[in-house]
Design brief:
alpha/beta
Length: 207
């Protein structure tokens, strides 16, 4: 699947979830490239891109969705070009922290599916992918694993302190995100604070 037109993508970043077409097309009128001799062609192109973006949103692009069974997860990762999957356990504080960052990234990256699955619902994949430490985030491109983040390894300046932008940069390097979107820290404070309260007693290894 081709990446979204940058103009449409920038408007989606600031639009309401309802994706009102008339409002968005009014915004597109301000695109300086529309004002040249190719105005009508450009509008047709952007209208097509907007329709595709709405279709992607209908198929849960731009959301952070929990998948309940591994067969569905395998179907999505093999059909979607770009996919990020978090293998988690609900009682692991570090998994909660990772959830917060991925939840912040998902609405900003319409070209990528963001998914999570409880490891207890994915015994085959856990064994096949040799997942032993949580959280474990896998990046898939055309169904092939492009990167693996184990715990918080390789994120931020220290193991236990990283920002949404740090995670985004790692996924950009893996090629599973199309363009940088995060600004500032980007951490959802309430979500992460509750998870971090349990952090000290959390265990990464699980059986």
């Amino acid at each position: 699947m081709a990446s979204l037109d940058p103009t449409v993508a920038s408007i989606l970043d600031t639009s309401t979830p309802d994706l009102d077409e008339d409002t968005l097309l009014d915004s597109l009128e301000n695109d300086t490239t529309v004002l040249d001799a190719f105005r009508e062609q450009r509008l047709r192109q952007l209208h097509s891109e907007l329709s595709r973006a709405k279709d992607m949103r209908d198929r849960e692009y731009g959301t952070y969705a929990e998948i309940k069974d591994e067969k569905t997860l395998m179907d999505i990762t093999t059909s979607a070009k770009l996919c990020v999957v978090h293998f988690f356990k609900p009682d692991f504080a570090r998994c909660g922290i990772m959830d917060g960052h991925l939840e912040a990234l998902a609405p900003k990256h319409f070209d990528t599916r963001f998914l999570r699955i409880n490891v207890e619902n994915a015994p085959f994949l856990v064994t096949k992918l040799k997942i032993q430490v949580l959280p474990c985030v896998l990046a898939f491109i055309n169904g092939v694993s492009a990167d693996r983040i184990v715990g918080f390894e390789g994120l931020g300046y220290s193991e236990d302190t990283f920002t949404t932008r740090d995670l985004e940069a790692r996924l950009l390097r893996a090629g599973v995100l199309v363009r940088a979107k995060s600004t500032g820290d980007g951490r959802p404070p309430m979500f992460l604070r509750k998870a971090e309260e349990r952090h000290d007693s959390d265990e990464d290894d699980w059986d």
